[in-house]
Amino acid sequence: MSLKGKKLSKNGIRRDRYESLDLPPEILRVLRALSTPARIQQFIDALSYQYANTAWSPQRVLRERKGHCLEGALLAAAALRVNGHMPLLMDLEAVHDDDHVVAVYRERGLWGGIAKSNFAGLRFRAPIYRTLRELALSYFEHYYNLRGERTLRSYSRPVNLARLDSLHWMTSEENVWCVPEYLIAARHYPLFPDKVARALPRLDRRSFEAGMHGWTKH
Questions:
Q1: Beta bridge mates, 160
Q2: Is residue 114 scored above 90 in pLDDT?
Q3: In 3D, which of 138, 140, 143 has the Cα closest to residue 127?
Q4: pTM
């Protein structure tokens, strides 16, 4: 198909591609307005954090105006998609702690991330990382549990949510459990050997308190 007369994003992806996603016009307008990764992060930061065993689609999150880590990443991936990026998620796997999900994007060959979290250091990353491993490692010092243990251990290859379009991950009114299942099944890569992990010191008090900014008990 000729691209003549079709507007391209800076990533070379046709902006009219979202027309095939069956997004309601009001949802599409919101997502298109989140035209940069920084704007997307600001928007998901403003959503109320919910502590619930759910997997809401971006459409549901936008209606309820709340969500948790996974749901924030899904919304970010949807916004990235309609603005010319691939809808990619990366899973950060932890021990004695919750996993974390990051919407990843690439600009000028470098990786960045968008994420929702109550922990100050587990959110936005500017696109300055040469590899996904570098990006994942940038979360290490900020990833700890309430006992001060450094808990991040591995990261997944990025999964492309476009492969789940037939399951309507962007618009479903039901929980989209297909997404966490896809992330769990993705290949994960250790960040360091087990013997290194066993020798990790706990976080110092000052760093612990700084990272807890914004955290609420549930």
A1: 88
A2: yes
A3: 138
A4: 0.89
